[in-house]
Amino acid sequence: MYQSLRKLLLFSFLLVTFINAKIDRHAKVYVAGHSGLVGSAIVRKLQQEEFTNIITRSSRDLDLRNQETVHRFFNTTKPDYVFLAAAKVGGIKANWDYPAEFIYDNITISFNVIDAAYKHGVKKLLFLGSSCIYPRNCPQPIKEKYLLTGELEQTNEPYAVAKIAGIKLCQAYNKQYGTNFISAMPTNLYGPNDNFDTETSHVLPALLRKIYEAHINNAPSVTLWGTGKPYREFLYIDDLADACLFLMDNYNENEHEIVNIGTGKDITIAELAECIKKIIGYKGTFVYDSTKPDGTPRKLLNVNRLTRLGWQAKFTLKEGIKNTLDWYSTQRILK
Question: Is the residue at 204 inside a domain?
Fold first, then answer.
């Protein structure tokens, strides 16, 4: 009897704690990078959850690389919560061609926003990192504890270093100032509002565009970068947004731990290309240019920490690709 009552009281306490953990839907929530792939999905999620005070600014109105401007913005708007999704992003070619911009822009954006969040009393901040922060030859699946245990992948090292610096700044502020700044590491992302430029995009949107255009132009073949052998994990952007809000509601700074966000499943680039080919209905063939870099051989995240918290992805890869294709084809027609 006593044990049953004790378990009931403990369950009630945990339930109340869980319910009360949710951030106030009327609080001021700033989404940095709201027009990008990640930020736009977070805004959609907040709107679906009936948040009433979402703060956004375009890069034209607010240059996050300018410290004085950022502090003035925080002083004026006084956000309670911050989703730090602003970043300069791109695929292997973009990282290779513009390493200085990738490290400088991303470090200054992260440092300015995180510092302003502390100095202007933000209750909680979620910093979005990337799976590229982990060493090139990590044991698979990649656990959060593998951070800084080996050399980074050379093709995206500047971006990875900038993201690691952002993680460490959050952890340092938590330790020294008692802030509640959490860091989430998503796997490869895709979905509506992605960058489909064949020169600067990530692998999935680049493949989707190449194969789609080959299909409508009746091209006999498509040339793809690398060997097609590397494995990659892909997460639909609406799943990421759902995970980000889940973490803001339910996860607090805990011994400086970061959290991976992914599906826990991966696929080779060649298999991904065939999947996109089948969905689009393309009848041609693929030619792999092995003179181009493959990048990291495999990059699958261990998502046990997030799963134990009670979250898992909802969209299958095929569902996500179909949704993304529908969006891309519609945007292409509108242009």
Answer: yes
